[in-house]
Give the backbone structure.
Amino acid sequence: MSTWSSNQQVCASCRYWCGRRKIDFMAYFFDAEEDRGECAGPAGSFRGIETGEASSCSEWEAFRKE
């Protein structure tokens, strides 16, 4: 498992990824606790599919709004 930052558009830092991860209180760093997790994204994403923490798609969305 890896650590990802909020500016990396990968599943582990996406608001729709349901894999286990630790998130710092400002949502800048994401420590993936498992390498795969289900996507709960909108249509056009990997919705319902188990994806790897480093995967990405065009529907990636930041975990927090700025």
The chain has one domain: 3-52.
